[in-house]
Write a structure and sequence with these properties.
- A hairpin with a 3-residue loop joins strand 9 and strand 10.
- The strands form three sheets. Strands 1, 4, 8, 9 and 10 form a five-stranded mixed β-sheet that branches. The protein has a four-stranded mixed β-sheet with strand order 6-5-7-11. It has a two-stranded antiparallel ribbon with strand order 2-3.
- It is α+β, with helices and mostly antiparallel strands.
- The protein has a single domain, classed as Major capsid protein gp5 fold (2-Layer Sandwich).
- The mean pLDDT is 93.
- Keywords: Encapsulin nanocompartment.
């Protein structure tokens, strides 16, 4: 029998229990993974996939192993492995097998949120330690400052869209909002009772995305080819260990991200920068 590195075969979890865990994780992650709705997604290429080809080389200096030989080193961006641990009560899983519909998966839900925040933050703001330059770090555009009144938000978005168009970046455009900005936008109405969110969608020609991990908001072109996400292993639930009371699990993935067109996005800063 081939054993997957996730070691699910060793967990004291029934087939129905695994279906429950996978479904819960999928539902929670689909909502929170805002970055994936704004970038080009490639893969998944598998757990063994280790690096993204950058299509560039650098000269190797110093003596070569043989006379008359020159060398260049291929440029790659290593994938980062990300894991968020959680635990589930064995009794809760047994109760699910008995037909319980209200299984407590609170710890799984929190792990899903945290790993989504990590991915969103890496894509939108970068992760220096693993070599990822995020969207707001790469853009040459000056950030557009916050405004105290969210009814003025369309002016900020229109200014961002205009700036992108002026440098030849076409739409449609999307707006990724941190949780605070998203709540304020979707709850706001303009004079006459017109929903602010509908006004913004017309300006953008694209979606408004809830993206935990975003600081402020980001206007990005969705034309394609500008923001490149590569998945090695896509988000999966794996087994670590168990005791008499709990099964200890984790959500894991590997990925890289790079910005191909830095000028295709503008940061709308919030009170937190």
């Amino acid at each position: 029998m081939t054993i997957n590195h996730l070691l699910r075969e060793h967990a004291p979890i029934s087939d129905g229990g695994w279906r429950l865990l996978d479904q819960e994780a999928r539902e929670r992650l689909t909502v929170a993974l805002g970055a994936r709705k704004m970038v080009d997604f490639a893969g998944p290429y598998g757990w063994e996939y280790s690096a993204t080809n950058l299509g560039r080389t650098e000269r190797v200096t110093g003596p070569a192993p043989a006379d008359g030989v020159a060398a260049r080193r291929r440029g790659v961006l290593p994938l980062v492995e990300v894991r968020a641990p959680f635990k589930v009560s064995r009794m809760e899983l047994l109760d699910h097998d008995r037909g319980a519909a209200d299984v407590d998966l609170t710890d799984l839900d929190e792990a899903a949120l945290q790993i989504a925040i990590a991915e969103n933050s890496a894509v939108f703001h970068g992760w220096r330690q693993v070599g990822i330059t995020g969207v707001t770090s790469a853009t040459p555009h000056a950030p557009i400052a916050r405004v105290p009144d969210f009814n003025d938000y369309p002016k900020r978005v229109a200014k961002a869209v205009s700036a992108l168009l002026q440098v030849g970046i076409g739409g449609p455009f999307g707006l990724a909002l941190g949780p605070g900005h998203y709540t304020a936008v979707v709850e706001a109405t303009e004079h006459g009772g017109y929903l602010l969110s509908e006004h913004l969608r017309k300006l953008l020609g694209g979606p408004i995305i809830w993206a935990p991990g975003v600081r402020g908001a980001i206007v990005m072109s969705l034309r394609g080819g500008d923001f490149l996400f590569e998945s090695g292993q896509d988000l999966s639930v794996g087994y670590d260990r168990h005791d008499e009371e709990f099964v200890y699990l984790y959500i894991e993935q590997s990925f890289s991200f790079r910005v191909a067109t830095p000028e295709a996005a503008i940061h709308l800063t919030g009170s937190d920068g």
